[in-house]
Input
Amino acid sequence: NKGYVLDKNRTPTFLYAYHGIECAYKISGEEAKSRTREITVTDPPADLYCRVAAAKSIEPAGNNMYAINDRRYYIRLNDRLKPLIRSTPAGKELLVPIEKNSGPLTYSITF
Output
């Protein structure tokens, strides 16, 4: 953990470094039932993925949305992203590749 910085609205962006990978992570949201997460990775290595969700069930719900745990909440991804749903012994994972020069990974969670 490298600390955090505050934007003009005093919303923190948390800064991390791990094995030479620099990452910034911000959560924002004006609505009570939704949050937006933005993850920026500086110079990501090849084959780097972000695990957006891990749950017993993850199902496509249309319009770039995924239903998590029998529709308890939803994740909406940007349409430019190419997510992967992977099976694990505990259930499913929603993974998104982090590619060079692709900008931040932004997604929303709706409850």
The CA atoms of residues 50 and 100 lie 13 Å apart. The radius of gyration is 15 Å. The chain is about 0% helix and 60% strand.
